[in-house]
Amino acid sequence: MFYGTWYIYEVQATAFKKDAARFFWNFRCRLTETPVFLQPVWPIYVEKPYAIRYRANQLFMHIRGKSDITTKIYPETHQVSFWCPNEKSQVISLSCKSRQQLVSVGRSKALQYTYLWKEKMDETASIPVIEVTDKKDNRIGTGFQYLLPEGGLLNISSPFDGIVIVLKNGIIFDKRHLMGGYSLELDNIQVGVEIKVFQGLDLVWSVYYEHKQYSLMPDETTILKTLDALGGKVIPVTRSICFSVNQLKNYPKLKRWVYKRIKIGYIPEEALRYLRRFLIDAKLKQ
After folding, report:
1. What is the pLDDT, as a whole number, of residue 67?
2. pLDDT of residue 284
3. Is 224 found in the same domain as 202?
């Protein structure tokens, strides 16, 4: 019995010319300078093979291809197209009423397609890896610190690029680029210095050095009045605030206040500093 041998080849056109077009046409393939490409733009989504998961009533997609490209949606829904200035791509707006829809893009037949899945987005991203150490390689945690690092030195490293902003008494006086895989040394760390590490637009690590103030723990009512009175710039709620809720078992009213801020998504910066200071004091007195 004879068994045949199969070979798989990958062929790529390096130039858009007649001979190349004829070769692909023999295989019922059309050669084009602008291959079809389908890319979601908004809202935030999770992309999996042949499926896009999102949560919105409207979806914007960027489609690359000339004017002979057609977009079909099933089940059908209202769509609006906006051609880009180069006339080689367009942005379409889709009304998303069904939980599952199919989007196909092509000329005489579908060249690209994907399924749209409208559902709750409950994924959480992992906490970025930021390592901050002192002169003796002791790791420095985020939040308020009462002891200055030895020699006033800190080393910051991360596998990804970022920006390090150094503030003194609330005023930015240094800004440095953090290169992924390399260590950045900061010196002259003093009381009143605050360090923030950003990756993209996310604040992933911060520390504030201040004098230790020994005092009796205030009651819950006083804490809430102080928090409500504090203002300053409003900033987004960070992961550290969410994690701090576990430390408020003995403070139910304060716990509800923090949950309210998490739900709103924003918190006054001065209130956040006071809350972090209170959590550190409460932990030290346990």
Report:
1. 59
2. 43
3. no
Domain span including residue 174: 131-209
Take residue 96 and report the two structure tokens written for it.
């998303």
- What is the SS3 assignment for 105-142? EECCCEEEEEEEEECCCCCCCCCCCCEEECCCCCECCC
Peptide bond connecting 268 to the previous residue in cis, omega within 30 degrees of 0: no
Sheet holding 202-209, edge to edge: 143-145, 202-209, 193-199, 162-168, 171-178
The last residue of a domain, from among 51, 86, 118: 118
Give the mean model confidence (pLDDT) for residues 167-196: 89
Count of Cβ atoms closer than 10 Å to residue 230 Cβ: 16
Q: Are residues 85 and 165 in the same domain?
A: no
240 and 193 in a single domain? The answer is no
Instruction: Give residue-wise pLDDT tens across range 211-267.
Output: 765 444 567 777 888 888 777 778 887 766 766 676 777 778 888 888 888 888 888
> 105 in a domain, yes or no?
yes
| Number of structural domains found in the chain | 3
